[in-house]
Amino acid sequence: xxxxxxxxxxxxxxxxxxxxxxxxxxxxxxxxxxxxxxxxxxxxxxxxxxxxxxxxxxxxxxxxxxxxxxxxxxxxxxxxxxxxxxxxxxxxxxxxxxxxxxxxxxxxxxxxxxxxxxxxxxxxxxxxxxxxxxxxxxxxxxxxxxxxxxxxxxxxxxxxxxxxxxxxxxxxxxxxxxxxxxxxxxxxxxxxxxxxxxxxxxxxxxxxxxxxxxxxxxxxxxxxxxxxxxxxxxxxxxxxxxxxxxxxxxxxxxxxxxxxxxxxxxxxxxxxxxxxxxxxxxxxxxxxxxxxxxxxxxxxxxxxxxxxxxxxxxxxxxxxxxxxxxxxxxxxxxxxxxxxxxxxxxxxxxxxxxxxxxxxxxxxxxxxxxxxxxxxxxxxxx
Length: 382
Known about the structure:
By secondary structure, the protein is of the alpha+beta class. The chain is built from 13 helices and 19 strands.
């Protein structure tokens, strides 16, 4: 049992720590509901935005009283803050110099080049760059994105020189467009050694993903090989990484890596497919424990279908009852009704609901996923 500070409000993370009998403290990005405080040993409710440069003195004093032994980042926006706390209190875990690099896509790619990791051509846009020079260097289509956002926020694919003139601004990262499908690799790491890999296949970006991916063994081995080179190169010792790769005709290309658990309900999919709780293992790894051996092969297939009908006002919804009848549905959440206003989809986490499913075979799972897609109809007002 240890005094553990979890940064970021992901219930399954701190509940796993509580079940393991740790004394759990939680730093929430804003006010906590009273029901969440019941089993906690203490909490902080300071917005993360106020701590981007440095920790506030009041928060340092509060953490000092907690007498913490380990810090765990539960969300994307909490990774640097957790590292800052480790540095302040001289605790083990991924250090700030590594999280800073991984939080900045340009620095991450520059670091990847040092280890001969295959990546797409890129360029950090500065004032003197002309649209014509960017196109000449990287071609069209041209991808531009913020250097420090996740979940595809702010990513634009520019098809023409006019679009490059309008959107390729200084401070953004420009990348050559990659032809190929996208996958991610979720890795659990103990003392610098990967002890579990899962490859997630993106059936439709922002919408559908399936675990585990179904590729030729040689391709899977190549993806894992590059993934592990990235982990070794960046010096990640314990915890979990979520890395994205593009599968091109010339082989896998590294996109980016986060040193934290994935979003997109992938942790749930891993649990359904492999039969263990990845949050428990993540907490064990971050608190210096040695997990029991983990399964190499998935027992089942699992998928997520994230629902978003487009921006506007909902007119009619049909097919919900058919969806609820499917025995393969593990979790179904739906947040809208006729008359609801739906905002534009600006990231992978934008949704009005989701369906998590599992089945004994990929074939059955894809058949049932099609039943969901064919029957769930959301009509928007014109």
